[in-house]
Amino acid sequence: MITKLFNRRTLLATFGAGLTTGTSGLLVPATAKGLAPTTSMRGGSNNYRPGAPIVERIGGGGFWMSGTVRRAGDGMPLAGQRIQIWAHTTEGHERDWHSHGATLTDSNGVFRLEMPQIVPAFGQPHGHLAYDSGDYETVFLRPVMRSAKDTSLEAHFVLQPV
Amino acid sequence: MIWAGLAFVVALPVALAATSPLLAWRQPIYIAAGFAGIAAMALMLVQPLLAAGYLPRLSMQRGRRIHRWVGGILVATVAVHVVGLWITSPPDVVDALLFRSPTPFSAWGVIAMWALMAVALVAVLRRPLRLRPRIWRMCHTSLGLLVVVSTVIHAVQIEGTMEPLSKLMLCALVLAAAQKAVASLGVWSKRSLPR
């Protein structure tokens, strides 16, 4: 038989749980249809050069950067979205202009750009991607390759309409 | 024998790093910055050996004098390391210095850098500070240990020009030398030590 709704222990537990939920970001307003927008990764915008041109491929190629672009909420694939890509490769540093290029997503929201082999720089083999065309919130990604020997890398965008 | 061994364990990782294929895709300033970091870790192996008088045919006094010089060189090599990386990619170094880098080893590198600056400052200010020798020694040693430990954590996580096995060997020796020197000098013991 329970005589009290709360004793000290349950009160503390409830308060603690409430505090954890409230301050840890677990409590988010329910989004319409679920698919949450991608947030920018730390360091993603490093050595970003706005306005990199759309190219057939970056440099000599040999390495594939690919991914998808979808809309937050309903997850609809977004066609014709411009994605910028850059990395430290066998042909240049991240800061070099010729290490930068952009491509557009196809009708399925898929992009794929050939570029030179990414090599480890600043301690990790990684690439950079940006969406910054303005129709959706800007997102910068910095995916890391599982192995420096990999010859492809994927990154996926879920964009939040502005 | 000890000298030859020391020369070998320092030269081996440097030599292997010099054969790294990554060098072909890096500019000279980036290469210099990387090797400055390797040199700094090699000097960290020498420092406790000098301080504890482990190296043959070096008197304790002479060893301590060289220890001071090597300390100065160590600060300079770390400066070259950080400035060289900063020239190579300013935003990555700024992120590291502000502790907002995506790579955990960056934070450890910055901790090691500040601890090294502090350990050098404590050394320079030994006379003006007029700390009791035992207290001064505890400060200098604990900061030195922080430098060593954070440098090793920094180095092992990096995928760079160092060959992995020789890097682990150098890291282990750096830790062992520091631990041995601290233990044999009795830094934490109550008795005051002859200088």
- General shape of chain A: globular
- List the uncertain runs of chain B: none
Fraction in beta strands of chain B: under 5%
Largest interface: A-B, 22 and 22 residues
Q: What is the CATH architecture descriptor of chain B?
A: Up-down Bundle
What Rg of chain B, in angstroms, do the CA atoms define?
Answer: 17 Å
CATH fold group of chain B? Fumarate Reductase Cytochrome B subunit
Query: DSSP strand (E) fraction of chain A?
Result: 15-25%
Mean pLDDT of chain B: 94
Roughly what percent helix of chain A? under 10%
Q: Termini of chain B, distance in Å?
A: 27 Å
CA distance, first residue to last residue of chain A: 55 Å
InterPro entries (chain A): Intradiol_dOase_core, TAT_signal
Protein name (chain A): Twin-arginine translocation pathway signal
Organism (chain A): Ruegeria aquimaris
What does this protein structure show overall?
Chain A: This is Twin-arginine translocation pathway signal. Chain A: InterPro entries: Intradiol_dOase_core (IPR015889), TAT_signal (IPR006311). The complex is a heterodimer of chains A (162) and B (195). Chain A contains one helix and eight strands. With 162 residues, chain A is mainly β. Chain A has a domain of 97 residues: Aromatic compound dioxygenase (Protocatechuate 3,4-Dioxygenase, subunit A), CATH 2.60.130.10. In chain A, the strands form two sheets. In chain A, strands 1, 4, 7 and 8 form a four-stranded mixed beta sheet that branches. A four-stranded antiparallel beta sheet of chain A has the order 3-2-5-6, with no helix packed on it. The mean pLDDT of chain A is 89. By secondary structure, chain B is mostly helical. Chain B has one domain: Fumarate Reductase Cytochrome B subunit (Up-down Bundle). The interface between A and B is medium-sized, with 22 and 22 residues.
